[in-house]
């Protein structure tokens, strides 16, 4: 027995070593960022373990070469056993993958992929057999494989077995997304067997589970078709379910038709009330305002006050971005509402007025901050009042508003904006003591603010290393937190020496560093505690191969609960850092900091956290392109972070693509300049080269002015020319603050911040 046991252990050790071919990060990058052709070219000539075979299988599937994909998936099933002459017949492959060998980490995934390939070849009997080999270790994979099994059984006309498969699946998956999908598949099976009554019931069950998402769109459309053909009518509760789902899927006319009928037939007062409310919402969202007003007049009552229905109408207009029409309704309602409804409406009016600043806008803004001073978001209104006064050169009024905001809401979202401009006002007035007070507040209380970084970069020359070190030591001795944190932060900015920073970090009280240490430890040690921790740990294999589909599939099953979401971000930060996926590492670290309420202080965070937040990824491409176009490598990195958070696959709502988010028209012009006929913007190096070429062009246009360059990159050079003409060029900060596009305002300040940070860590 001992000899047999030792033999098994030895075999396991050998097989484990065999799967370690190549560098982990290099393999991950290959899967994450390169084309299928490149993956195939790179791996075909190398020694291959299960990981490499799995990657080749995925690459060949992308190329729609099913037979080669099948070969490689089969050979990825075992840690140390491959068959280079494997015959690709269903029975032969099945015998091979059910052999007695040590299964690799990719066994379940490979068998699931093989099942789908044979389904496409219409080998439905074998599809079922392969599906039955997949275990529940990877929940998303298991769910999708069982759904595939039900489809194969249906193709074999074994409909009862298919339904039983789906029914068993509802026991294992009770999350709304999965249940809705399973119910839609059950409905589809019932339709296939002409059991329309059961199909309709299953579609309604799907909508009761989840009335948003693509499954609900299918369910509501198919349910309506069945009802139309059969002449079935719905009771009020089912009609309400259908109506709400139709509304949620932007089928506003259909929603209105269903809801009108349910109101007429309803004996359930609560359901009738909700149906009326959704009818108003459907008409308003569909911009049928005459019908909306008619319904409001017809159904207004003590249970449904006209003011409440009018507010619903305004809410829908507002949500549909018809804010001008919504605003008129809100203003008319202000005298008729009370309590939380009044606060909600007045807040929307005040915010709209503060952003648009029409004549007399101050009335609503002042009313809101006077009536509801406990609302922390009043800091925004005070900021906007002060900003308007600043633009009108009413310095005293601006100062008063900013002082009030900084005093009442010291931790407000816009308090750093106000403290920054108070600093500038004091500086212009020659009030050095007041100016210094505001600067220190910004450095200590707003270490993550882009405004703070602008001033820290600008002021670093005003302090000597000796004076700051003295202040640091004295502050620690006396317990003056503001003094030692200020000195420590400014030394970090000035010296640009992370080793020296780390030396000081060890001297700081644990109260200042505990949260950063806790965050860093949780990511480094992969400390998970939620019910989905095993599922998250198993995602390692997908990061090792750069298998985005596997990562996405499993993440979709992580519940929205706080603990599970925290664990998800810990896992993504951990694996993202280890396996060359800077977007996951960066974004998930930011989410963890938000979760813990930990400010993004470059002076206090530990180096692994800093490396995740300030990636130096794609360095070869960045350095090469920096030299080619004579653009600072740190500027390139700053723009990448501002544009895409280092996500090469990013696509914006307006169609910008890749790491540096170039619009297709801009990319076409760059390609013409570079004499390129074909290009792929989601390729990291291509995006970096194209984006840097565009930055170099803007650099020449705006004679090296950083703010104008990045404004032009974000909003187009034509807009910048207009702003140069319209905005007095008092200083760079004034220009940045008063550009008309909010996105561009944030972009200028944030890109400055990222540039200054990269200048510290990437010397």
Tell me what you see in this structure.
It is a single chain. The protein has 763 residues and is mostly helical. Among the domains are: 233-337, Alpha Horseshoe (Serine Threonine Protein Phosphatase 5, Tetratricopeptide repeat), CATH 1.25.40; 339-462, Alpha Horseshoe (Serine Threonine Protein Phosphatase 5, Tetratricopeptide repeat); 514-613, no CATH class; 619-761, Lysozyme (Orthogonal Bundle). 72% of the residues lie in helices and 0% in strands. It is built from 44 helices and no strands. The chain is globular and about 85 Å long.
Number of strands: 0
CATH topology of the domain at 619-761: Lysozyme
**Largest sheet entry:** none
Rg, please? 31 Å
Give the name of the CATH architecture of the domain at 619-761.
Answer: Orthogonal Bundle
> What's the CATH class label of the domain at 619-761?
Mainly Alpha
Overall 3D geometry? globular
């Amino acid at each position: 027995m001992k000899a047999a046991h030792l033999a098994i252990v030895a075999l396991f050790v050998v097989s484990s070593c065999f799967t370690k071919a190549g560098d982990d990060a290099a393999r991950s990058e290959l899967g994450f960022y390169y084309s299928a052709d490149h993956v195939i070219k790179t791996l075909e000539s190398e020694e291959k373990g299960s990981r490499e075979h799995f990657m080749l299988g995925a690459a060949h599937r992308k190329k729609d070469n099913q037979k080669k994909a099948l070969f490689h998936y089969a050979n990825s099933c075992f840690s140390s056993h491959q068959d280079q002459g494997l015959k690709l017949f269903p029975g032969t492959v099945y015998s091979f993958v059910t052999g007695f060998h040590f299964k690799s980490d990719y066994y379940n995934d490979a068998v699931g992929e093989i099942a789908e390939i044979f389904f496409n070849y219409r080998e439905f009997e074998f599809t079922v057999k392969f599906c039955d080999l997949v275990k529940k270790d990877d929940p998303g994979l298991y769910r999708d494989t069982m759904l595939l099994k039900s489809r194969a059984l249906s193709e074999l006309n074994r409909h009862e077995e298919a339904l039983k498969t789906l029914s068993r699946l509802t026991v294992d998956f009770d999350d709304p997304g999965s249940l809705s999908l399973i119910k839609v598949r059950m409905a589809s099976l019932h339709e296939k067997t002409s059991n329309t009554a059961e199909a309709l019931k299953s579609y309604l069950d799907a909508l009761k589970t989840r009335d948003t998402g693509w499954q609900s769109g299918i369910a509501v459309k198919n349910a309506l078709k069945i009802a139309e053909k059969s002449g079935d009518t719905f009771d009020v509760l089912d009609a309400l379910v259908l109506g709400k789902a139709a509304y949620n899927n932007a089928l506003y006319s259909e929603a209105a038709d269903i809801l009108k009928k349910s109101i007429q037939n309803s004996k359930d007062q609560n359901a009738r009330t909700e149906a009326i409310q959704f009818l108003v919402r459907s008409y308003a969202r569909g911009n049928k305002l005459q019908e909306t007003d008619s319904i409001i007049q017809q159904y207004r009552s003590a249970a449904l006050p006209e003011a409440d229905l009018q507010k619903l109408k305004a809410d829908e207009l507002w949500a549909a971005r018809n804010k001008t029409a919504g605003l008129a309704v809100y203003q008319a309602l202000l005298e008729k509402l009370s309590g939380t409804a009044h606060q909600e409406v007045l807040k929307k009016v005040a915010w709209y007025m503060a952003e648009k600043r029409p004549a007399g806008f101050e009335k609503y803004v002042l009313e809101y901050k006077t009536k509801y001073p406990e609302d922390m978001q009043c800091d925004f209104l005070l900021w906007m009042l002060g900003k308007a006064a600043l633009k009108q050169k009413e310095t005293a009024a601006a100062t008063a508003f900013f002082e009030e905001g900084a005093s009442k809401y010291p931790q407000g979202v816009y308090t750093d904006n106000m403290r920054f401009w108070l600093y500038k006002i004091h500086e212009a007035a020659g009030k050095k003591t007041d100016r210094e007070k505001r600067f220190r507040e910004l450095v200590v209380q707003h270490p993550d603010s882009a405004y703070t970084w602008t001033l820290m970069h600008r002021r670093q020359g005003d302090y000597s290393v000796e004076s700051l070190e003295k202040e640091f030591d004295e502050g620690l001795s006396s317990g003056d937190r503001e003094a030692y944190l200020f000195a420590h932060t400014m030394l970090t900015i000035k010296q640009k020496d992370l080793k020296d920073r780390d030396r000081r970090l060890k001297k700081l009280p644990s109260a200042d560093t505990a949260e950063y240490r806790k965050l860093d430890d949780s990511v480094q040690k992969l400390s998970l505690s939620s019910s989905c921790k095993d599922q998250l740990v198993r995602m390692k294999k997908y990061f090792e191969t750069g298998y985005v589909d596997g990562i996405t599939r499993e993440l979709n099953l992580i519940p929205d609960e706080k603990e599970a979401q925290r664990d998800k971000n810990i896992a993504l930060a951990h694996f993202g850092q280890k396996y060359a996926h800077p977007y996951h590492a960066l974004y998930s670290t930011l989410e963890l900091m938000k979760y813990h309420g930990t400010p993004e202080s470059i002076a206090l965070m530990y180096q692994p956290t800093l490396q995740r937040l300030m990636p130096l990824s794609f360095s070869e491409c960045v350095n090469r392109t920096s030299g080619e176009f004579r653009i600072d490598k740190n500027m390139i990195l700053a723009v990448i972070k501002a544009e895409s958070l280092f996500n090469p696959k990013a696509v914006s709502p307006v169609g910008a693509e890749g790491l540096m988010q170039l619009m297709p028209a801009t990319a076409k012009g760059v390609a013409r300049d570079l004499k390129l006929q074909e290009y792929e913007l989601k390729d990291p190096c291509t995006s970096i080269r194209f984006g840097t070429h565009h930055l170099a062009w803007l650099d020449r246009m705006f004679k090296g002015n950083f703010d104008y360059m990045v404004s032009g990159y974000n909003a187009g050079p034509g807009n910048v020319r207009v702003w140069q003409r319209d905005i007095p060029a008092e200083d760079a900060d004034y220009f940045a603050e008063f550009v008309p596009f909010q996105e561009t305002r944030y972009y200028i300040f944030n890109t400055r911040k990222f540039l200054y940070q990269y200048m510290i860590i990437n010397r």
